[in-house]
Specification:
The structure is a homodimer of 109-residue chains.
Chain A (H helix, E strand, L loop, with lengths): L2 H17 L2 H12 L2 E2 H8 L3 H13 L3 E6 L2 E6 L5 H22 L4
Antiparallel strand pairs in A: 1-3, 2-3
Chain B binds a DNA duplex (30 and 30 nucleotides) through helix 4.
Amino acid sequence: MDAATQARMEARARILKALAHPTRLFMVDELAKQERCVAELTEMVGADMSTISKHLSQLKAVGLLEDEKRGTQVFYRLARPCVLNFFSCLEAVMQENLQQQIFLVRPGA
Amino acid sequence: MDAATQARMEARARILKALAHPTRLFMVDELAKQERCVAELTEMVGADMSTISKHLSQLKAVGLLEDEKRGTQVFYRLARPCVLNFFSCLEAVMQENLQQQIFLVRPGA
DNA sequence: TGGCTTCATGGCCATATTGCCAAATAGGCA
DNA sequence: TGCCTATTTGGCAATATGGCCATGAAGCCA
């Protein structure tokens, strides 16, 4: 793997890593529907606000989210809706995995 | 976030996590072109074979790869080509990020 | 059987990630 | 100015991840 390829794969990995967390995936899903402030997301997820703030920072750092300060609140929104396309593929993989499980559990049926 | 949503997000995160590594992304890319045995991938990546084997196991564990043993070799292939659709979105995000960088570096220009 | 090749696994250490609390910062308002 | 609210940041402990080496397991062949 040459250096340029390595660099490109690292850049891709950074974005995927930012997505690869249950809480962050949930927030991306919600922000696809409408923008939300940190307090709202904190309430929806049910975690410490500092935790949510850090998760949002990660998504913003890789360019997936945008934020806008309005008064004392900060509203986040989905900056790259194309990531939503991932989810249908993920669901398909999950579905296939379920089927495979069945075959593994009942091989001779 | 209710329990069912939590579980679904965790399942999605597991798959994305398996993808979110430079070496694993590279191998997915290569396996999209043609199946490869472990030795070939080891050579292409330039890492220890045990490391490559573990990376492949992770991708297989989440259902993205299939393997087939032929003689003493094990050939891996991409089981879910839909993940390739991710990459164009990732490239777009990377491209956008580059542009933003320029604006950030030269805000008044 | 013995030896060789290919691959997987276990162990270990270094590093990264997560999530909480506490403290700092920023904005609005009396 | 001083206080209150919303958010971010620093610090820390627990846990997970990554990569190498050494070892184990499986298949082929003489």
